[in-house]
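Design a sequence for this backbone.
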């Protein structure tokens, strides 16, 4: 019977975004979330008090809200703040959740040339690694590309 290797709890390599940048992102998320709540609350209170509703103003507010949500809120949700490497997996921490993925779970690593980010695609999720958040960005990308190449050749 072959012995299974011990699962290590300490990562081989750890990269973290500075705490101030994480704090700014959390405050930005809360600000955009409050904007969503207050704009929708304004419409609801106007309806409840039977006030006249300016549909052009409400439509433009809704379009602005959708623009802000897609350009600010979504990237904030999927942006990685901590990257941990093990021999058999990678750990990615966003603002609100932690994930540990086997190297074979990563479908693609892309680096769009017009953005300063790398996008890690898995079956059910995407993760964004921002180039300006990590001083060691080239090392992170190099390690991921190396491990993905190894994982893809094994399967």
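Sequence:
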């Amino acid at each position: 019977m072959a012995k299974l290797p011990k699962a290590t709890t300490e990562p081989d390599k750890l990269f973290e975004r500075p705490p101030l940048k994480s704090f700014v992102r959390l405050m930005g998320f809360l600000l955009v979330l409050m904007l969503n709540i207050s704009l929708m609350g304004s419409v609801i209170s106007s309806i409840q008090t039977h006030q006249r509703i300016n549909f052009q103003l409400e439509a433009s507010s809704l379009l602005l809200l959708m623009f802000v949500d897609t350009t600010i809120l979504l990237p904030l949700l999927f942006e990685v703040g901590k990257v941990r490497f093990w021999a058999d997996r990678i750990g990615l921490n966003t603002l609100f959740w932690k994930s540990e993925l086997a190297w074979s779970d990563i479908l693609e690593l892309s680096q769009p040339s017009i953005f300063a980010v790398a996008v890690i695609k898995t079956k059910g999720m995407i993760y964004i690694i921002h180039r300006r958040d990590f001083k060691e960005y080239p090392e992170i990308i190099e390690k991921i590309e190396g491990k993905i190449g190894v994982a893809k050749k094994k399967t």
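Residues 35 and 41 are 10 Å apart (CA to CA).
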